[in-house]
Amino acid sequence: MKNLETLRWIGGVDGHLRLIDQTLLPVEFREIDCPSVEAVWQAIRTLQVRGAPAIGIAASYGVCLGVQKAAKTDEAAFFRRLDEVTGYLAGSRPTAVNLFWALDRMKSAAARLRGKPPAEIAAALLAEAQAIHEEDRQMCRAIGRYGAELLADGQGVLTHCNAGGLATADYGTALAVFFAAAESGKRLHVYADETRPLLQGARLTAWELMEREIDVTLICDSMAAQVMREGRVQAVVTGADRIAANGDTANKIGTYGVAVLAAAHKIPFYIAAPTSTFDLATASGKDIPIEQRDAREITHGFGRQTAPDGVAVYNPAFDVTPVALIAAIICERGLIRPVTRQRIAEVMGEDKPGGSN
Amino acid sequence: MKNLETLRWIGGVDGHLRLIDQTLLPVEFREIDCPSVEAVWQAIRTLQVRGAPAIGIAASYGVCLGVQKAAKTDEAAFFRRLDEVTGYLAGSRPTAVNLFWALDRMKSAAARLRGKPPAEIAAALLAEAQAIHEEDRQMCRAIGRYGAELLADGQGVLTHCNAGGLATADYGTALAVFFAAAESGKRLHVYADETRPLLQGARLTAWELMEREIDVTLICDSMAAQVMREGRVQAVVTGADRIAANGDTANKIGTYGVAVLAAAHKIPFYIAAPTSTFDLATASGKDIPIEQRDAREITHGFGRQTAPDGVAVYNPAFDVTPVALIAAIICERGLIRPVTRQRIAEVMGEDKPGGSN
Questions:
Q1: Which of A10, B11, B54, B285 has the most other CB atoms within 10 Å of its CB?
Q2: How confident is the model at residue B268 (pLDDT cuts 50, 70, 90)?
Q3: Which residue does chain B place closest to A192, by CA atoms?
Q4: What is the value of ipTM here, to two decimals?
Q5: Residue A74 burial by CB count (10 A; 0-12/13-18/19+): exposed, middle or buried?
Q6: Closest Cα to residue B174, out of B220, B235, B219?
């Protein structure tokens, strides 16, 4: 069985980063080696690695690569190089919040060791990157563990878009639930929405599930209602881009429709997302602006023109599912169920991870 | 403005058929001439002309082309040729019911004139083909007229798939409603679902609406819920493949989901279809079998592989919308509202077209 780690560090402090080239999926599986910070920058830029957590981890390792030579110089030269490298990586995907968060964390780790030999700081930076990586892995596993309790052996489940391992260090969020359920001996059958316009469900979710030997059936987004009507699914689990203080959840366009259809068919709809997805400064979904994307994603979706020249297109990147449609939110600290402003505040206020099931 | 007639006969009894090559849309508009029955057979076979009514009309004209030379022979030779031609055309799309209906009607018209000179029969066959053509045009216009009464100036409406003129002689069914509303001075804004997997909405509906200068916005199927939530549409109108005696309606996959979403947003959902779509021998939707189609329609959208090798696919060609979700059925005899078994039986029992609004 092939290695399915989104990315991994090979060797010690003078090692390098290896990652799955996601631009080739699902047609070809190939890992690429990034021996330099420039190679990592390029991998992030060209979407060979994508998904907020995975980008943050890749950038952390990119910092390690960028200071490898400087570890043999003096402190001043080392920190100059560190600034240069983090500034350079920050420009690879300028809108990725996790990227800045990871780079700041790496800089803080180095700053705490000012006065120590550069080689020692370089070693600490590798340890910090590995900690970021490991924390993300633990987060995925915890979400999987809590979410799996919601599913029963033999059930059908539906998911939308890709909240899978490829976007994270390891198991992902929504897909972590399926992987953990399978590990605990529950046989699930997953229906994966292809997720127009960019087909993350067809390209990535279906691939990940097949690779981990979970039964999966690919459908067009327009078929979810029929699949529900035929009694083929007993639960829906998706990821989230942002969760407001009241539980309203922004996620990939189409999620809201799936939630409405689930309610109409009396199927519970669950969100799986780490606590870092909660934005308590946003009171409710109506405060979340809806980003519009390029018309060509729809009109030239398959590399071929499939709509008339100049047609008007409405292409919202995501939608907001109101909290009333969400049966539970699965996060690394446990289940939030029912989803209320107070329960969210309680879970977010917890000092450290722990069951709140 | 270009000619938008799906097909038209050019000249007299020695004329030929001209039709829009639908395989080139929406990238290129080109009409092709069919000077022979072989050319018509080819056009039907290769989907240059598609849609049940349009295929029936094309085949009728194909019969006229096939007997042009035989019109100068004797009666026995003429009828031998007529049998040959109708048998040949019947093989062009073996599952198209309208095709057989049209060919039978042409043969009956000829049979009624046995004993007359072949040239006279050939002329009568052209008149019969033109009658079939004209009746379809009138059907479209009547549906448009009745349906337009349901819509108000300034409204947004949503449609799924292509129930447009390209499938018929003229205005189509669902789209006829929009065209008629526009003619009566109502400015509509139409949202067209792209309609995966075959993208009839993107390729054909958007094209037809733009050509007839109706405001149209193309969306992915997964965006319909968001468009409804934002208050952008006040009605949904789609076509139908088959309507059961109780009003349950089979139509392109995705229609049922749209109907559920419309209900959840308190938006009326209408079906526009000629009375020929009703199948009173089918008691309800559960008696309509769901055809499964080729996985490659989903995994290889338009020539490019977008899903893993060997992935399981569920690809139902259509779904059934239960009558409870249908606010009215618009047919050429008027509105069926509310949709009940009795009202359907009454309308179907009417001797001739007329308002039953």
A1: B54
A2: very high
A3: B313
A4: 0.91
A5: exposed
A6: B235
Query: Hunting for tokens 């309610």 — which residue is that?
Result: A263
Decide if A307 and B206 are in contact by the 8 Å CB cutoff.
Answer: yes
- According to DSSP, residue B305 is labeled -
Q: List, for residues A286-329, the tens digit of each pLDDT value.
A: 999 888 889 999 999 877 899 999 999 999 999 999 999 999 99
Does residue B83 have an active-site annotation?
Answer: no
Residues of A in contact with B193 (CB under 8 A): 222
Q: Which domains does chain B have, with CATH numbers?
A: 7-140 (1.20.120.420), 145-348 (3.40.50.10470)
Q: What is the mean pLDDT of chain B?
A: 94
Pick from A90, A23, A32: nearest CA to A60: A90
Query: Under DSSP, is residue B271 helix (H, G, I), strand (E, B) or coil?
Result: strand
DSSP per position, B35-87: -SHHHHHHHHHTTSS-SHHHHHHHHHHHHHHHTTTGGGS-HHHHHHHHHHHHH
Which of B24, B212, B220, B288 to mutate to probe the A interface, most A CBs <10 Å?
Answer: B220
Do the bridges between strand A249-252 and strand A318-321 make them parallel or antiparallel, or are there none, so unpaired?
antiparallel
**Contact assignment for B298 to A220 by CB distance below 8 Å:** yes
Question: Which residue of A220, A300, A318 to mutate against B (max B Cβ within 10 Å)?
Answer: A220
CB distance B182 to B212 below 8 Å: yes
Nearest to B301 among A193, A261, A302 (CB): A302
Q: Do A304 and B306 touch (CB under 8 A)?
A: no
Question: pLDDT tier at A276 (50, 70, 90 boundaries)?
Answer: confident
The minimum CA-CA distance between B257 and chain A, rounded to whole Å, is 5
Residue that the structure tokens 């039907």 belong to: B44
Distance CA B201, CA B199 (A): 5
Please check the confidence at residue B354 and state whether its pLDDT lies above 50. Answer: no
Q: pLDDT for A121-174, tens place per residue?
A: 999 999 999 999 999 999 999 999 999 999 999 999 999 999 999 999 889 999
> What would the mean pLDDT of B256-264 be, rounded to a whole number?
98
Nearest to B226 among A215, A310, A316 (CB): A316
Q: What DSSP assignment string belongs to B184-247?
A: TT---EEEEE--TTTTHIIIIIHHHHHHTT-EEEEE-GGGHHHHHHTT--SEEEE--SEEETTS
Closest chain A CA to residue B286: A230
